Amino acid sequence: MVLHFAKMHGAGNDFVVIDATREPFALQPGQLRLLADRHFGVGADQILVVEAPPGPDVDFRYRIFNADGGEVEQCGNGARCFVAFVRRRGLTDKRTVRVLTRAGIIEPSVGDDGEVRVDMGPPRFEPADIPFDAAGLRSSLEGDLPRWELALDDQLLRLSVVSMGNPHAVQLVDDVDHAPVGLVGPRLEHHPRFAHRVNAGFLQVLDPHHARLRVWERGAGETLACGTGACAAAVAGIRHGWLRSPVRMQARGGELGIAWEGPGHPVLMSGPAVHVFDASIDLDALAAPRATP
Fold first, then answer.
1. What band does 170 get if pLDDT is binned at 50, 70 and 90?
2. Ramachandran angles phi, psi of 270, nearest 5°
3. Residues forming beta bridges with residue 200, ordered by sequence position
4. 75 an active-site residue?
5. Is 81 tagged catalytic?
6. Are strands 167-172 and 247-251 parallel, antiparallel or unpaired?
């Protein structure tokens, strides 16, 4: 089976993008893991799949698979690459497309300046919407959003929980360069209080309109940027009073712009969407047994 794909990235968050508008997408989790493998496959944080619309109210269906082969609800950097991909491939000439995800409908668009913007919809903050089991936990109200105290081994984390269609737990740190992302991130991802696992964000505020962020993404590990993570961190920071819209969110792979008018309003995200190359790969050869010494 020969698979044709594009390699793209948004601020270093990299993707394999597949056009499945003409025939069904049928890759299995093991094949997805091999495809995402950086040594034995193509290498990607996520695999993005473009499908035909299921109804007349949307232009496409958008599916996201993490590097571990699991399907997830949303990917903000991927959404920007999605609209750039469908326009480049001639699948649409619209500047704004309505796209159905597992988390609902989003509307990525390409501006006159070539920058890609995404209406990510309104964030949600109730623990049940994350979902997050907050029963019995202490919290403190900072601004107008609780920070939840969660014990993790011998540490006490103070978390802001946000859903951007996918679950996020954001913690404030003094310096992201020295934050224990690789230690705390995976343990927080799999904490039993998060029924669907969680993306762990580490936020450093530089000034009211500028912050730095690192994110441990569930199913992918630390990535160079996380679009939904940037949205979650920005809106949590705004509600806590640490940040004010618009926010320049600096990730390790580049900068994202986040604007939010407050509860009930959608989060607007902007940033790069870069096409790297087009290629094809023989999946049967990819899945062949590896030689052993």
1. very high
2. -135, 155
3. 169, 216
4. yes
5. no
6. unpaired
